Amino acid sequence: MSSRDDILARVRAHRSAPERALPEIPFFDPPAGTDLLATFTQSFLQMGGTLPECGTADPIAVARQSVSTARVVCSRVPEIPGNRPITADTPPASLADVDVGVVRASFGVAETGSLCLTETDLLVNTLGYLPQHLIVLLDPAQIVSNLHRAYQRPEWRSGHYAVLQSGPSATADIEGVLVHGAQGVRSLRLFFVPRRTDTSGTAAA
């Protein structure tokens, strides 16, 4: 046993305070019947996000049309193909010239209008920040009420990276002028698209 292990063992053996259960923290859930989709939409728009008008059209078709004129499109979703391949070995800095990134969020937070993007969603983490514009697909069924519920999600424990992104990058530090894209994407467009499941019942991209 090393000196460090010996010291720690002695400390543990002489602890006098008994183990105490952690306090129970409330989730501050909204009233029953609250429309989480409507709440999320309002919060998302307040944070500067964009919800393209789809009407009765297929949102995937609208999203494909919106990237049709982009020079470099890097996509992580099969529904919207890109022309810039991405693999786990793609150098993060190489995505600096991407015009549009396309990803699917793991879930959304109604309280803040935030989207959870994980290393699985992005594959290369800079895909969420280096493109000029970001398109995100979100399953409306994957919206939680608030941050208390968000941090109960398994994404925070199942991987090495997860972030809550709220709208496009923005700063108003200089002369009080709001500038989008100063530290990240200039726009964030969201499409509500349910996640497909394969014949085995496993969630697909």
UniProtKB/TrEMBL annotation:
Superkingdom: Bacteria
Q: Which residues form the LUD domain?
A: 95-190
InterPro entries named among the record's database cross-references? FTHF_cligase-like_sf, LUD_dom, NagB/RpiA_transferase-like
**Which Pfam family name is an example for this entry?**
LUD_dom
Q: Which PANTHER family does the record associate with it?
A: LACTATE UTILIZATION PROTEIN C (PTHR43682)
The protein's name: LUD domain-containing protein
Q: Which organism is it from?
A: Gluconacetobacter entanii
